[in-house]
From TrEMBL:
CDD domains named in the record: PA_subtilisin_like
Domain of life of the organism encoding this protein: Eukaryota
Domain C2H2-type: 241-261
Zinc keyword on record: no
Protein name: Subtilisin-like protease SBT3.6
């Protein structure tokens, strides 16, 4: 990229930017790379660049490589990328011992092994309160986000898709050097069906990008299901490039390892301090605790929820009782047929769905009922191969049923419903069932839930930093796919936090268009403090798992994304570079390491600052012992003359007091700092309990979640 600064220029359309490799906005410097089976790609991170002479920065990188490797020729052969815009550093093919030598150099902050990161609509924007025909929504207030540029780090896009309709653009630029260096040989596109360019082969990037931006396409469905307009929050064409100026935000539906030593956290830091919001996926490792990824406080980390759409599929039992399940079944009505269950002796373990085999003779000619907490399509494939006519999967964990064959009935019900069907099977000698094709149902009584696969907090790296931050629709989302995918449709249903992330990024882009002067932290605060803690109809949000429970901040952060509310938050919890330095000091990083990252001398206080004082739109206390105090600051972005009163909903067993508990803003006072005193009479260690703090002026309720755990050391 030639520039990372925010530009005032108005753009007539939204542009997508595919940012390759590290989420760094950089010019690629390509060099021929010899293959060495014993070497791997490492990123040598040198922190903030010290000057603006880009050629001199790259020369310095080569000089360092030459010094360690012994020759200029070895430097040229080893170099993969030179990073010189967002920060200073380079990627090179190194032996492990050579990487260690670089790690010990005084100008090097960190040496990071290169990693391949895991990848993580017609209804969702209406569900979030942004219908196209509303004259008062944030979508229209911002003229569809006109002038906002999004940098997308994913598997690429399929530019021929109608959603990316745009004539007159050049071919996709090549960008395969890093991949070739990582795999250690020239990339064989015959053995590895992919492209050495931003062109998408997998389909993931095409799908996620059509959620956030592109052109609206009418009368789109997945073979009749979810019929409507595939639209994005920013109607307009898309374009892929590796050298684009003026990125306004970055979105990546990837997950990093659950540690601090990853390139994504470092790269996103440099983007955020330049005023570029970064939105990331929480990961798909739920519902277990402490599985959330992308946990740096400067990142907006997104969980996945369901929405008020159900692909309803009727199951009619032989006693004429009709039950509604969920499926993506596009075949014909089966008529009444035999219904079977894999009964075993009471002395043996029950046969769950995943234990069904293609040679199970009992399944032939029958619809099979089974129970599972795993993937439904595994049972479907086994039953189909055994000659079965369909499968009813009982589980309290929602599965992505689009992975089942479209013409083979693979219907999911809850464990409770499954038990009712089993009672029917055991009550009659010849149980029968009829399965009907799926149909689309919108609105009540379909509830909103945090999806079972969505990764959960607390953060294992910094438990006092609440993650995830927010949740958005990420289950059965319809988006475009590459045209070579062997289906009869150009649009496909996918589930994951990867699908939730571009929903939030779309809202972030609208907020950026509405308030160009807002910092990434202010945008994050607006999203978190205005989030829904109930679904749009006012019903509570549950979190899927074993068992299902009411959702808490470790499931969905502040709550479900509320774009219109975020456009008018009243107050924001703002942060800048100094606040992030406070976080790094609180995490125990030394002055020299922080100075290299930030590009300026840093002196952490002699007494390590409290991580509880990082000005986040949340309060998380993982180890409360008796009492603790912390501070927060809020900035008025609403009416100049405003008064807010505190509304406290403390976690059970916890007392919270504020000083002051009333905030008065005027033309001279825009930011106020308040003190929060938290105490508990408990004398035993507990799990987390949850509450909230809201500032109310009668129009706004600026709410932040509170999570507290009492933790006492055993003497």
């Amino acid at each position: 990229m030639s520039s990372l600064s925010l530009q005032k220029k108005s753009y007539s359309a939204l542009w997508f930017v595919i940012v390759s490799v590290l989420l760094i906005l950089h010019d690629q410097v390509f060099f021929p790379a010899a293959v060495d089976a014993k070497s791997n790609v490492y990123i040598v991170y040198m922190g903030e660049r010290q000057h603006g002479n880009l050629d001199l920065i790259t020369d310095g990188h080569h000089g360092m490589l030459s010094e360690v490797l012994g020759s200029d020729e070895a430097s040229v052969e080893s170099m993969v990328y030179s990073y010189k815009h967002g920060f200073s550093g380079f990627a090179a093919k190194l032996m492990e011992a050579q990487a260690q030598m670089f790690a010990e150099l005084p100008d090097v902050v960190q040496v990071i092994p290169n990693r391949l990161h895991k990848l993580q609509t017609t209804r969702s924007w209406d569900y979030l309160g942004l219908p196209l025909d509303s004259p008062t929504s944030l979508l229209h207030e911002t003229k569809m986000g006109d002038g906002t540029i999004i940098g997308l780090l994913d598997t690429g896009i399929w530019p021929e898709s109608e959603v990316f309709s745009e004539k007159g653009l050049g071919p996709s630029p090549l960008d395969g050097m890093g991949l070739e260096a990582e795999i250690g040989q020239p990339f064989n596109t015959t053995e590895n069906p992919d492209y050495l360019s931003p062109r998408d082969w997998l389909g993931h990037g095409t799908h996620t990008s059509t959620i956030a931006g592109g052109s609206s396409v009418h009368n789109v469905s997945y073979n009749g299901l979810g019929l409507g307009t595939v639209r994005v929050v920013h109607p307009g064409p898309g374009w892929q490039c590796t050298k684009c100026a003026g990125i306004y935000m970055v979105v990546y539906s990837l997950v990093s390892h659950v540690d601090q030593h990853d390139g994504i956290s470092i790269a996103s830091f440099h983007a955020v301090v330049r005023g570029i919001p970064v939105v990331s996926a929480a990961g798909n490792s739920g519902p277990s605790a402490e599985t959330v990824s992308n946990t740096a406080p400067w990142i907006i980390t997104v969980a996945a929820s369901t929405m008020d759409r159900l692909f309803a599929t009727h199951i009619t039992l032989g006693n004429n009782q009709t039950i509604t399940g969920e499926a993506v079944y596009l075949g014909k009505d089966t008529g009444f047929t035999n219904l079977a269950y894999p009964e075993v002796s009471d002395l043996l373990a029950p046969r769950y769905c995943e234990s069904l085999l293609p040679n199970d003779t009992f399944a032939a000619g029958n619809v099979v009922l089974c129970f599972t907490s795993d993937s439904s399509h595994i049972a479907a494939e086994s039953v189909k191969k055994a000659g079965g006519l369909g499968v009813i999967v009982a589980s309290n964990v929602k599965n992505d049923l689009s992975s089942c064959s479209q013409n083979f009935p693979c219907i999911q019900v809850s464990n409770e419903i499954g038990a009712r069907i089993l009672d029917y099977i055991r009550s009659t000698r010849h149980p029968q069932v009829r399965l009907s094709p799926s149909r689309t149902h919108l609105g009540n009584p379909v509830p909103t839930k945090v999806a079972s696969f969505s990764s959960r907090g607390p953060s294992s790296i910094a438990p006092a930093i609440l993650k995830p931050d927010i949740a958005g629709p990420g289950f059965q989302i319809l988006g475009a796919e590459p045209s070579f995918v062997p289906t009869s449709t150009k649009y496909y249903l996918m589930s994951g936090t990867s699908m939730a992330t571009p929903h939030v990024s779309g809202a972030v882009a609208l907020l950026r268009a509405l308030n160009r002067e807002w910092s990434p932290a202010a945008i994050k605060s607006a999203i978190v403090t205005t989030a829904w803690t109930t679904d749009p109809s006012g019903e509570p949000v549950f979190a899927e798992g074993q068992p299902m429970k009411l959702a808490d901040p470790f499931d969905f952060g502040g709550g479900i994304l509320n774009p219109n509310g975020a456009g008018n938050p009243g107050l924001v919890y703002d942060m800048g570079k100094d606040d992030y330095i406070l976080y790094l000091c609180a995490m125990g990083y030394n002055n020299s390491a922080i100075a290299k990252v930030t590009g300026r001398p840093t002196s952490c206080p002699c007494n390590r600052p409290s991580i509880l004082d990082v000005n986040l739109p949340s309060i998380t206390i993982p180890n409360l012992q008796y009492s603790v105090s912390l501070t927060r600051s809020v900035t008025n972005v609403g009416a100049v003359d405003s008064e807010y009163n505190a509304v406290i909903d403390p976690p059970p067993g916890v007392t919270i007091k504020l000083e002051p508990d009333r905030l008065v803003f005027n033309s001279k006072i825009r930011t106020i700092t308040f003190r929060v005193m938290v105490s508990s009479a408990r004398r035993v260690s507990t799990g987390f309990s949850f509450g909230s703090l809201a500032w109310s002026d009668g129009e706004h309720a600026v709410r932040i979640p509170i999570s507290v755990r009492s933790d006492f050391a055993i003497p």
